[in-house]
Design a protein that fits this description.
Elements: H1 2-16, H2 19-35, H3 39-42, H4 44-49, H5 59-62, H6 74-85, H7 92-101, H8 104-129, E1 132-133, E2 139-140, H9 143-150, H10 158-196, H11 200-215, H12 219-247, H13 252-263, H14 274-293, H15 301-304, H16 312-339, H17 358-369, H18 372-404, H19 409-425, H20 429-452, H21 454-469, H22 482-497
Antiparallel strand pairs: 1-2
Helix pairs in contact: 1-20, 2-8, 2-14, 2-20, 6-12, 6-16, 6-18, 7-14, 8-13, 8-14, 8-16, 9-10, 9-20, 10-11, 10-18, 10-19, 10-20, 11-18, 11-19, 12-16, 12-18, 16-17, 17-18, 18-19
Length: about 500
C-alpha cells in the first residue's frame, strides 16, 4: 500500500514540479514585474523605506493593536510570514540544490526570487483587497477569498472560482501537516539527536508542549512570539554566516564565477555534460528557490491579510521584502558558506563531501568553527523549523476555517499539535514527498487567481503610485467591498492628519 502511494505521489510530484510548473511560477512573476514596470527595482527606495526602514520612523508599523482588535501589526505579519518561510529550505534546500544542480543552481534561485518578489507582492495586494472579517472580528484573506470573490466575479466564472477556492484550501490543510509540521519537526529531532544526542521522543514532547502554548492561543499569540523569535534567529544566523564570509572573502571572485558559469553551462556541472548540467542547475535552483520563499504558493498572504494595514500596496511591499530577506540574504549566505568551505570543487561543481542536507552545511561551518559548527546548525534548524511550524499552523487553520467554519478551528489546532510528536519520532521519507506535492498543488489555483486578477493588481498599484508618489487627487482603491473601503478611507485621512502614515 505504501509503495503504491509512493509511486502515485512520485508521478504527481513529477508533474507538479516539472518544467511547465516552474515556467508558470516564474512566468507569473515576470508578467507582474512587467505590468508594474519593475516595481521591485523602480521603487526600491520607497518599499525599503516603508518596510524594514519604516520600523525606525513609522510607529504605526510596529504598534500593537488594542486587545479587542483581532488584527496584528504590519511588522508582526512580516515576522509571522518570515517564520513560515525561513525554515529548513534555507539550509537543507540550499545544500540540496548545490548537490543536485551545482553552483549554477544559486543563480536560478536568485532569478526565481527576483521575479517572485512581484508574485508575492500581487498575492498580498489581492489578499488585502478581497479580505473580510469573520464572526470573531478577525480578518480573513488569502487565495481562497480572491478566487471566490475575485475570479468568481467574472461572468461565467462563479462556480470555477468557488471550486478553485475549495481545492486551494484542501491542499493548504494537507501541506500544513506535511511541510508545515511533520517534515520540519523531523528535521529538528534528527539534528538534536545527532548534535546533542537528545532522544527524538524527548524533542517531540518538548516541542509539542511549546507549540500548544502558542498555537492554541491564536494568531495574536503566534505573532507576539514570532516578532521576537524571527529577528533573533535571523540575526544570529546571518552574523554566523557573515563571519565565515569575511574569513573567506578572498574566494568571492571564484564563487561568483562558478555560479554564473554553472548557470549557463560554460563548464560542466559535477563532471556531467553541459546541457544536462544547465538543466539540473535551472531545475533545482528554481525548485528550491520556490520551496524556500514560497512566492506563488499563496501561503503567506493568509497572515499578511491579518495586518492592520489599510493600503493593499503597503502590505504588498512587505511581500517584496519577505522574498528579498529569505532568498537574497539568508539563502545566499548559506550558499556562500558551503561554496567557500572547500567541500565543493568550484571548477567542476562536484560536491567533495558525502554529507547531505543540513549535515553538509554543518560540515561547512565546522571548517571555521570546529565542532561547534554542526551544533550551530542544529540550533539554527531548531529555531528556523519551529518558527515555520508556528506560521504554518495559522495558514492551515485559516484554510480549515474556510472549509468548515470558525467554530471548528480548535479541532484542527489540536490535531496539528499532536502531529508534532508523530513528526519527531517517525521516519518521514514519504511525508517529505507528499509535502512537496501538496505544496506544489497549492500553487496551481493560486496562480490562476493571480493571473486572472492581474488587471486588478495593476489598477491598485497605479492608484497608489498616483496618490502617494505623484500626489494626485484620486479616490483610493482599498477594498473590493464598499463598506470596508469607506471605513479604511476615513481611517487613512486621520492617519495622514496625524502624520503617522506617510
Amino acid at each position: 500500500m505504501v509503495e503504491m502511494i509512493t509511486n502515485v505521489n512520485s508521478a504527481i510530484n513529477g508533474f507538479v514540479w516539472g518544467i511547465p510548473m516552474l515556467v508558470l511560477l516564474v512566468g507569473t512573476g515576470i508578467l507582474m514585474t512587467v505590468l508594474t514596470k519593475f516595481f521591485q527595482l523602480s521603487h526600491i527606495g520607497h518599499w525599503f523605506k516603508n518596510t524594514i526602514g519604516g520600523i525606525f520612523h513609522d510607529k504605526h508599523i510596529t504598534k500593537h493593536t488594542e486587545k479587542e482588535d483581532q488584527s496584528i501589526s504590519q511588522f508582526q505579519s512580516l515576522c509571522t510570514a518570515l517564520a513560515a518561510t525561513i525554515g529548513t529550505g534555507n539550509i537543507v534546500g540550499v545544500s540540496s540544490a548545490l548537490i543536485a544542480g551545482g553552483p549554477g543552481a544559486i543563480f536560478w534561485m536568485w532569478i526565481v526570487a527576483f521575479f517572485g518578489m512581484m508574485t508575492n507582492y500581487s498575492e498580498n495586494v489581492l489578499g488585502i483587497y478581497y479580505r473580510r472579517k469573520n464572526e470573531r472580528n478577525e480578518w480573513c484573506g488569502g487565495a481562497m477569498y480572491y478566487l471566490k470573490d475575485g475570479l468568481g466575479s467574472y461572468k461565467g466564472f462563479k462556480q470555477i472560482g468557488a471550486v478553485l477556492a475549495v481545492l486551494f484550501s484542501i491542499f493548504c490543510v494537507m501541506a500544513s501537516f506535511g511541510i508545515g509540521n511533520m517534515s520540519q519537526i523531523n528535521s529538528i529531532s534528527g539534528n538534536m539527536k545527532s548534535a546533542f544526542n537528545i532522544p527524538t521522543y524527548v524533542t517531540g514532547i518538548a516541542l509539542l508542549l511549546l507549540a500548544a502554548l502558542v498555537i492554541v492561543g491564536g494568531l495574536k499569540r503566534i505573532a507576539s512570539v514570532t516578532e521576537k523569535l524571527v529577528p533573533f534567529m535571523a540575526i544570529i544566523y546571518v552574523v554566523g554566516s557573515l563571519i565565515i564570509f569575511f574569513m573567506n572573502i578572498d574566494q568571492c571572485g571564484a564563487i561568483f564565477s562558478a555560479i554564473f558559469k554553472g548557470a549557463f553551462g560554460l563548464r560542466a556541472v559535477g563532471g556531467g555534460i553541459v546541457g544536462s548540467g544547465v538543466k539540473m542547475a535551472l531545475t533545482w535552483g528554481m525548485k528550491r528557490g520556490v520551496f524556500s520563499n514560497e512566492a506563488g504558493l499563496g501561503s503567506s498572504v493568509m497572515v499578511h491579510s491579518s495586518s492592520n494595514v489599510k493600503e493593499p500596496v503597503r502590505q504588498g511591499m512587505w511581500g517584496i521584502f519577505e522574498v528579498f530577506a529569505d532568498t537574497m540574504i539568508v539563502c545566499t549566505l548559506t550558499a556562500f558558506v558551503v561554496l567557500s568551505s572547500g567541500l565543493v570543487d568550484l571548477e567542476t561543481g562536484a560536491v567533495l563531501s558525502a554529507s547531505e542536507g543540513s549535515a553538509l552545511v554543518g560540515e561547512a561551518f565546522a571548517t571555521k568553527f570546529g565542532s561547534a559548527g554542526p551544533m550551530f546548525i542544529a540550533i539554527a534548524i531548531l529555531l528556523f523549523a519551529f518558527s515555520t511550524v508556528l506560521g504554518w499552523s495559522h495558514y492551515g487553520s485559516k484554510a480549515w476555517e474556510y472549509l468548515f467554519g470558525t467554530k471548528s478551528m480548535i479541532a484542527y489546532k489540536i490535531v496539528f499539535v499532536l502531529m508534532i510528536y508523530v513528526g519527531a519520532t517517525m521516519n518521514l521519507g514519504l511525508a517529505w514527498d507528499l509535502s512537496d506535492t501538496f505544496n506544489g498543488l497549492m500553487a496551481i489555483p493560486n496562480l490562476v487567481g493571480v493571473l486572472s486578477l492581474s488587471p486588478i493588481v495593476l489598477k491598485i498599484t497605479r492608484n497608489y503610485v498616483a496618490r502617494i508618489l505623484k500626489k494626485e487627487d484620486v479616490k483610493p482603491m482599498l477594498s473590493a467591498f464598499s463598506d470596508i473601503e469607506e471605513t479604511h478611507a476615513e481611517e487613512l485621512k486621520e492617519m495622514y492628519k496625524k502624520e503617522m502614515y506617510k
